[in-house]
Design goal:
The structure holds two protein chains of two kinds.
Chain A lengths: L1 H24 L2 H8 L2 E6 L7 E2 L5 E2 L1 H14 L5 E6 L4 H6 L5 E2 L7 H6 L2 E3 L4 E3 L1 E6 L14 E5 L3 H12 L5 E5 L2 H9 L5 E5 H8 L8 E3 L7 E3 L2 E3 L3 H19 L7 H4 L5 H7 L15 H9 L2 H8 L29
Parallel strand pairs in A: 1-4, 1-5, 9-10, 9-11
Antiparallel strand pairs in A: 2-3, 6-14, 7-13, 8-11, 8-12
Helix pairs in contact in A: 3-9, 3-12, 9-12
Chain B lengths: L1 H13 L6 H33 L30 H34 L4 H14 L4 H15 L7 E3 L3 E4 L2 E4 L1 E4 L3 H29 L5 H19 L4 E4 L2 E2 L4 E2 L2 E3 L1 H27 L3 H9 L4 H31 L11 H13 L2 H31 L4
Antiparallel strand pairs in B: 1-2, 2-3, 3-8, 4-5, 6-7
Helix pairs in contact in B: 3-4, 3-8, 3-11, 4-8, 5-8, 6-7, 8-10, 9-10, 10-12, 11-12
Classes of the chains: A alpha/beta, B alpha+beta.
């Protein structure tokens, strides 16, 4: 009887068991290679970070990072399947194996890094939470929003930061919380709220979508630290290394002056740092399961970090966000990538 | 030889039960039950093992942790320092509020539309038809968004708040009502009112007995109303009207004070009520049409007033047809209220299966609790309606 039940159970559970077993054992890199594309979780629509353009092509800083990883693996930036996710869905999608990599303006926090089965590998954008208000209100500080209605998106660190901010100052406010950013912005646009809050980068992205962008200002005060970065599942160190060093190679390429345009000349450079980055010296691809030209492919196909930044959110884009703390360390910013050696 | 001959029938007999279809049926049933149970236990264990392997927190301990976020509408005491467990109660009460008000409004409105469709007035009947066919053929989520954004556009901004009599203020931030402030002595008024209600019930029973015994009609409703209102009113006035109101006043951004009906709540109620009413209208119409014409004619032949025909003959019989599908609509309305998340109303799905799930990331536990709650609400509603149905069914002899 017991035996038969076990057979029955085993048979019925065959699919689930096999799926979970392979999921636990085979490496993410192997399954990505076997599948022939990288599944990358991105934002449904956040101008500058990940949004489809008028031709239906995904563009943005987060999207470029997915393409950089795909370039390193496949030598082809198009071998990415973008999976648009809401804030609420993103972690479950990564945990369940639906995506290989989450590159979706996600704040690196302790609880997410330690209790939710995620591993953050670095920071692609140093952000902080800000507030978008009507210019006519003539506000100088966030604290002046006491008693105001504030629109925001659910499932974000923003929701907690606002609560903390007003609680520490013993002020009150009325939160209006939406599942999707689109509805939060639409409600704000129609006057449901006095302020809309999200990461400062998002505020600039949303402002250009409003009926009259010039009637709104972003308050100068930033109330939180929001280091946004890519995350992978815990338990596959090789994969985490690969994604992490893709980011570092991206940043180092900018530091070394290697760009999409000059990368083919730089291969012949005598600078040992550049030679190691582009794979003409050393065997650095080996440790992450790739060919030695992995970083060359990244720069060749996507450009370096600075190029992607300017193209998507900086001077070359409608957002026109200043680089400030997102400059490299040597220019006074916070990005500091360990060396490739 | 003899022993073998004796042995074989015995052997056959001891395994005879194997050939009994009843016994085999029972064994198969048990085997199936064990199989299904084992299946779910295996899924549970497998899930737990996988979550553990992926270093994802499990268990229900998170319910005691501090939530750290605020909620726009709380019917039970809540601060951002409250626990996730308290968030659950806030979400549950918000869902129940919408469900209960929505069910009452949808029933009333549905009956009105259903009767309108049966009206002999051509225009009224056509309007009813247009309403039903339009509303029930457009997805509810779209209707909710349409109502929400329409309300936000149509209602004035707080600096141009529309002021209605009795201190009611209307803005696109909500409908502001004066909040009653209880003052000492109001308890006595309540006690008087409660005593009045008890008295009214007694009058009702007495009137019914008298009618059954003698056939004499007593205006029990008016007597009852007097018994409820008069003593309470006397106590209220003699104590010098022990109640005051806190009126909403213009603040820096919004009206402050008073009771606020959020536009999210209004849009959700509007959408759910109108949508469900369209279905209830059809149920009501079919119920009334199911009563044979002969019943009405017989009642009329007995000399009953047309209104009495409806109240005493048609409606009670129609109710038997109406109630079971009506229950389904009540359940649908309750479950549909989870669409609230789209328009920012803090219902159970929005704050608990949304925000809490995201902050704790314990999807399995949170979703299990949420599904359990909806199941419990639905079963309870169904139970109440079944009881009501059984009572109504007794009307038939």
């Amino acid at each position: 009887m017991r035996h038969r039940t076990q057979i029955l159970t085993a048979a019925a559970l065959g699919l689930i068991a096999v799926a979970s077993a392979t999921h636990a054992q085979s490496s993410t890199l192997d399954s990505v290679k076997k599948r022939g594309d990288l599944r990358c979780g991105v934002n449904i629509g956040l101008a500058g970070f990940s949004a489809p353009d008028d031709k239906g092509e995904w563009t943005g800083l987060d999207v470029d990072f997915c393409r950089a990883v795909a370039s390193a693996i496949f030598k082809d930036p198009t071998k990415v399947k973008f999976v648009p996710l809401s804030a609420k869905e993103r972690f479950t999608a990564l945990q369940s194996g639906e995506i290989d990599l989450l590159s979706r303006n996600t704040t690196w926090t302790m609880s997410r890094d330690t209790q939710q089965g995620l591993a953050f590998v670095g920071v692609t954008y140093y952000d902080g939470q800000g507030f978008l208000v009507k210019k006519s209100l003539d506000l100088k500080s966030v604290a002046q929003l006491a008693g105001a209605s504030i629109c925001m998106q659910t499932g974000t660190t923003n929701e907690l930061n606002v609560a903390d901010y007003f609680r520490t100052r013993s002020l009150t406010y009325n939160p209006v919380v939406f599942e999707k950013n689109e509805e939060a912005v639409a409600a704000f646009n129609l006057g449901r709220c006095d302020a809309y809050t999200t990461d400062a980068s998002g505020l600039y992205a949303q402002r250009i979508k409003l009926a009259d962008p010039s009637a709104y200002v972003v308050l100068p005060e930033i109330i939180s630290k929001e280091p946004l970065g890519p995350a992978v599942r815990q338990g596959d160190d090789q994969w985490a290394n690969l994604v992490q060093w893709t980011l570092f190679a991206w940043l180092n390429a900018e530091g070394l002056g290697v760009t999409q345009e000059n990368v083919d000349e730089m291969i012949n450079s005598g600078n040992p740092e550049i030679r190691r980055l582009l794979g003409t010296e050393g065997e650095y691809g080996l440790g992450i399961g790739l060919d030695n030209d992995w970083a060359y492919q990244i720069v060749k196909n996507v450009g370096n970090y600075g190029q992607s930044f300017e193209r998507n959110v900086g001077k070359g884009s409608r957002l026109d966000i200043a680089r400030d703390q997102n400059k490299l360390w040597k220019d006074g910013g916070l990005h500091y990538a360990p060396p490739i050696r | 030889m003899a022993s073998t001959r004796n042995g074989s029938p015995q052997e056959t007999q001891s395994f005879a039960w194997l050939y009994d279809p009843r016994t085999r049926g029972i064994i198969l049933q048990i085997a199936l039950l064990v199989g299904v149970a084992a299946f779910f236990i295996e899924i549970g264990l497998n899930t737990a093992a996988n979550l553990n392997a992926q270093n994802i927190a499990t268990g229900f301990g998170f319910l005691d942790r501090t939530a750290g976020f605020d909620i726009s509408q709380t019917l039970v005491p809540y601060k951002s320092t409250s626990t996730y467990g308290q968030v659950f109660w806030v979400g549950l009460t918000n869902t129940l509020l919408v469900a209960v008000i929505g069910i009452v409004l949808a029933t009333v409105f549905g009956f009105v539309i259903g009767l309108a469709r049966l009206s002999s007035n051509w225009l009224v009947a056509r309007l009813g038809t247009v309403y039903v066919e339009t509303i029930r053929n457009v997805p509810l989520l779209l209707q909710l968004l349409a109502w929400y954004f329409t309300l936000l556009i149509a209602l004035p901004s707080p600096d141009a708040a529309l002021e209605l009599p009795l201190g009611v203020g209307v803005t696109n931030r909500g409908l502001y009502l004066p909040a009653p402030v209880w003052e000492p002595g109001l308890g006595a008024v309540l006690i008087a009112a409660l005593a009045g209600i008890a008295g009214a019930v007694a009058i009702g029973i007495w009137a019914r007995r008298k009618r059954l015994a003698t056939g004499e009609q007593v205006p029990a409703f008016w007597y009852g109303l007097a018994v409820v209102v008069m003593p309470a009113l006397v106590v209220f006035l003699s104590l010098g009207a022990p109640i005051s109101f806190e009126y909403p006043t213009p603040g820096r951004f919004n009206l402050d004070g008073g009771i606020v009906l959020l536009p999210e709540l209004m849009a959700l109620l509007l959408g759910l009520t109108l949508y469900t009413a369209a279905f209830i209208a059809e149920i009501v119409r079919s119920g009334i049409e199911a009563v044979p014409r002969g019943q009405k004619e017989a009642a009329a032949a007995l000399g009953l007033h047309p209104w009495q025909v409806q109240r005493l003959v048609v409606i009670p019989q129609a109710m038997r047809v109406i109630i079971p599908p009506l229950t389904n609509q009540y359940l649908n309305l309750t479950k549909n209220s989870s669409l609230a998340v789209a328009i920012g109303y803090p219902d159970l799905v929005s704050v608990f299966a949304g925000t809490v799930l995201n902050q704790t990331n314990q999807a399995v536990e949170v979703i299990l609790i949420t599904m359990g709650v909806y199941l419990a609400i639905s079963l309870l509603t169904a139970l109440l309606m079944n009881w009501f149905n059984a009572r109504m069914a007794l009307v038939e002899r």
